[in-house]
Amino acid sequence: MLLRTAPMAFVLLTTTFAAGIDSYNVTIDLVRCTNDRITVEVELPSTLSCTECRYVLPRSVPGTYSLDRYGRFVVDARAYDASGKILAVRRDDDDIVVKGRPVRIVYAVNDTWDDPAGSEVFNPTGSNIQCDTNVVLNFHAFVGYIEGAKNFPYNISVRKPRGFYGATSLERRSSTDTSDVFHARTYMELVDNPAMYCSPDTTSFDQNGVRVTVAVYSHNKRMRSDSVAAVLKPTLAAVARMLGTMPVDRYTFLFYFAGMQQRDITRGLSFGALEHAHSSLYFLPEGSGGENMAHEMIASTAAHEFLHILVPLNLHSEHIADFDFRSPQMSRHLWLYEGCTEYFQLLARAQDTLLEPEAFLRELLSNLRMMQMFYRTRRVSLVELSQRVLEPEYQKLYPVIYMQGPVVAFCLDVTIRQLTGGRMDLLGVIRELMRKYGPNRPFRDEALFDEFAHLVHPALREFFRRYVEGTELPPIAECLQALGYRYHDSTQVETYQFELSALSLRRSSEEPIVVTRDTTNPFGFRNGDTLVRINGILVTPENKYELMSKYIWAPQSPDTVRVLVRRSDGLVELRAVPTKGYRTARYTFSAEPSPSPAVLEFRKQFFRKSS
Ligand SMILES: [Zn+2]
User: Fold this and answer.
1) What would the pLDDT profile of 393-405 be if each residue is shown by its tens digit?
2) Phi and psi angles of residue 284, each rounded to the nearest 5 degrees, phi first
3) How much distance in Å is there from the Cα of 409 to the middle of ligand 1?
4) Alpha carbon of 135 to ligand 1 centroid (Å)
């Protein structure tokens, strides 16, 4: 659904208010909490007067690109006037509509995480209410505003169980063992600063002038804030190196690590995060894929969310600047907000030592492979996908923006460097636009492509016409060639495999126990074997899946694989040699055998390598 921006005067029909120090005073009670439900009490600003007041609960929030209708989780609404008289309330479009002059609205809130009705709400944007262990307060899921009056300040009092700490980047006015008081200047600011309550586990450090706080909740206590901070430090250093100066002076990382057995909330294994101006909130698995995989996921996700400080947080169109929580308008520039951000997180790590240049290119191209799974019938342009992303048919295609988007950004970066003889790059153009516009000065949604062309070169307009407004795949072969690599759309590659039917590991156990019914497997695995070593490497609960993938499910070489297992009758060494085969690989590349000095120089500049 695409709606054009309605004139603001339109919304103010029944509401008049005077701006001032008057505010919303909200109490959120995490102590009186039953069945994952808490009570919220909202005192309205005293200068606000309306005869039929619509208390809006957002249908969507910035950065999510989906319709989630948070009002669905608000129940038992009551409203009172100045004399304490109860007023008539009706629900309309998930909002609360009050007849009369309310001064106070009270209601209960259910969480989105384990509510069957909330299953389509992405956890980093939703709410978790487990008052004994963890509460995730994305404030838009708990608090609304009277229509036309979202620019009043908010004072938020949270009553909390003893021993709980509320981590947030929201301004903290006071704090005791049993309560916190926070302040936000507007509704937008409140929504942009989520909080997570649980037993404290936080680590703080300074990185390139940014005061960083890491708060962690880990369901089985597998992850700790100090080890997460150790992953974030070099990641942020790489980001700082790419950016030159950091765009913020403080930042909070809020991590919820889910256990794999928490099926009610991990659902379709949809993990991820949501960005904010001074924080980001993560919902990630505690990890059974090994420490490396967990660290890689933390590093790449955190770099992505942090880099959102560029776009859309400091450069965006009018649809985001004055976000319409009731009828959200979708910008055509998801390629910029999500595509460029994902590209920059890869580039930052490739320009540092965290990602080898060829691994960077492999990551980019593997996105194209995944993209094909979504484009079974027809390919849509990134502009069309952006503008219609709230429609169910397009919502299904949404992940494509993280696959095609970064490749488009990569080709755009290469093209900008080529058109300007290396004088400009994509980051430089975005910086230039941030100077011209900025967080409080949105650009016109339809004018951005022309702005880019104006800053860089008239020929750049053609790039957008073909690859962003049009449905052509970005010119990946030319872009790889510019860096001294040869692109192969489709090629035959050698593969190795073991003839194993249904060989897995027991899910109910931490121990690496083999599950198989196949008695003729080439290793001679028996059901119930406990893995001890694979090719000499000790198998642990943390690395078991990683080792199984690398050596048994998808062996990387034709070499014999040795597995030491424990059985009732002792230790046994099993061996097998993988069989060789061929498969068609799409979107691959190889190094140009003798690239010209100009190409090598371009590559050096691109990856900012000194030699
Ligand atoms: Zn993002």
Assistant:
1) 999 999 999 999 9
2) -130, 160
3) 14
4) 23
